[in-house]
């Protein structure tokens, strides 16, 4: 399961979350983002201990700038309200799952 996050709920859903949150910065026109989406859904289903949050960079440019997202897809893992790991571009599922251990 994933949640859509914007500037209005980012603090509550990501920074104040008691669970680790994997934030997917994406856009509808981004081919690699669309290729990555099913993999992220699988990871979210197999790892209930994390939350998958999606940020559409076209709609939420402030968040993209705040977290220095220069290219998409960019994934940032937050634990305890702080970014602890980042992945840029399309990556295999195994690489992304390894990131969860950061």
What does this structure look like?
The chain has 102 residues and is an alpha/beta fold. It has a single domain, classed as Glutaredoxin. The chain is 34% helix and 27% strand. Strands 1-3-2-4-5 form a 5-stranded mixed beta sheet. The model has no long low-confidence stretch (mean pLDDT 96).
Features:
102 residues, alpha/beta, Glutaredoxin, five-stranded mixed sheet, 34% helix
Q: Tell me, rounded to a whole number, the average pLDDT.
A: 96
Query: Order of strands across the widest beta sheet?
Result: 1-3-2-4-5
Query: What's the SSE pattern?
Result: EHEHEHEEH
What's the end-to-end separation, in Å? 21 Å
Class by alpha and beta content: alpha/beta
Question: How many individual helices?
Answer: 4
Number of structurally distinct domains:
1
CATH class: Alpha Beta
Instruction: Give the helix proportion (percent range).
Output: 25-40%
Quick overview of this protein structure:
This protein is of the alpha/beta class. It is 34% helix and 27% strand. The protein has a single domain, classed as Glutaredoxin (3-Layer(aba) Sandwich).
SSE topology sketch:
Elements: E1 2-4, H1 10-15, E2 21-26, H2 31-46, E3 51-56, H3 61-66, E4 74-79, E5 82-88, H4 93-99
Parallel strand pairs: 1-3, 2-3
Antiparallel strand pairs: 2-4, 4-5
């Amino acid at each position: 399961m994933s949640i859509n996050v914007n500037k209005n709920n980012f603090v509550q859903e990501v920074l104040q979350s008691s669970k680790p949150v994997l934030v997917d910065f994406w856009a509808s026109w981004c081919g690699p983002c669309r290729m990555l989406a099913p993999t992220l859904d699988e990871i979210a289903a197999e790892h209930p201990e994390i939350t998958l949050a999606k940020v559409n960079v076209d709609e939420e440019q402030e968040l993209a700038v705040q977290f220095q997202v220069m290219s998409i897809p960019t994934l940032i893992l937050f634990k305890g309200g702080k970014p602890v790991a980042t992945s840029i571009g399309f990556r295999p599922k195994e690489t992304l799952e390894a990131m969860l251990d950061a």
